[in-house]
Amino acid sequence: MLLDQNIAQMVLDHALSRGADFAELFIEKTNIQRTTILGQKVHEIQGGIDFGLGVRMIYGHRVLYGYTNIPTSEELLKIVTLISEREKSDRKRNIKNFILAPTTDIHPIISPLGAGPDIDVKIAYLFEIDKAARSVDGAVNQVTALSLEKKQRIEIFNTEGLHSTDNRNYTRIVASSVAEKEGEQSTGYEGPGALAGFEFTKSIDPKELGTMVAEQALIKLDAAPCPAGKMPVIVDNGFGGVIFHEACGHLLETTSVQKKASVFWDKLDQEIANPVVSAVDDGTITNQWGSINIDDEGMPTQKTQLIKNGKLNSFLVDKIGAMRTGYERTGSGRRQNYRFAPASRMRNTYIEAGKDTFQDMISSIDKGIYCKSMGGGSVQPGTGEFNFSAQESYLIENGKITRPLKSATLIGTGPEVLKQISMVADDLKLAAGMCGSVSGLIPTTVGQPALKIDEILVGGQA
Question: CA-CA distance, 306 to 314, in Å (whole number)?
């Protein structure tokens, strides 16, 4: 245990004596190790431990939050008094007896941080990525390879009698490259990750990863300018799902729905997408990067059907979201660490596989764009208006992929894009990412099969 149960009891009793309707303690201990190769040398090896406690108090629909690194009863009682100082309530409630809820670990770990291979093994793995990328072509003049390992232990107590614990182990490998030719530069990037120990790297061939990021950078050096205007676009599987995540997924979190700040807040059971589109947020996928056993409010994770055959089926709901909207919780209360109060957040969010083939989609287009890999972008909260750049893209002419393109940008809105999707392939793929929102930066997975958007505005230089 990270906190003595008697201290938890005392602090939560004090919170209720201050008139709170609900109170919660979130305790966390996290170990991190980060190893980076840059310039064909070991650039840095960083590690550390972070420990802290968060106190959440709820008065009606109002949330108060404070945190500390000191696990004493005096410190925690002081925080409760301070954050509730301006609340006036005569309500007095009794805390229920704590019952330790057993956590079923559905994500097996073999080599967690501290019990995995030596640092020399990890460094050798990263150097293989570096060597493979540089060997592709002399134009590749910079390669970065890093491993990030994280071991997080959490414990939760609340005034409803909940007592839960969980252990989470994360491993991510990030590779990037820069290629240069005649003064022009381009980049390549891949960042696979899993809710697993360092054994995850056995599924990632370092030579293939290094070659991939190098070729991604090189192909753009000789690419033609991208045409501009409205046209059909095929967005490939995997990280292409970042558009759905950013432009649609956030609009389905009760963080925005409860404030009516989402265009979908009143669209439950209505058709919001083409009937070929079904979408899911699933925290139960074994060892997937965005998976969890329990959320950061202590609720077991689950699979949530967001969209089914084009109709909005559900939202992502945390405790506060349930209180403010009346929808049932979905085990989606997540936070970066003890410094943040939890909020409704995505886990592994993806568009489900369809029945079309990738080649059928390509053959259906006379002139359009194929976005093989998506990069970064920006999204307007509430409306889902987005602007995303393609990391790697190609021109489609007469039903065939022809030449590579540079500087392709997709511009549109999430709600409109959902209606413009007419074909969904059978090649679902998931990809790791990091998602930032009101409760901090958390591991999430995006994904989709390849899909065809009948018409979207493409920004380009041609």
Answer: 5
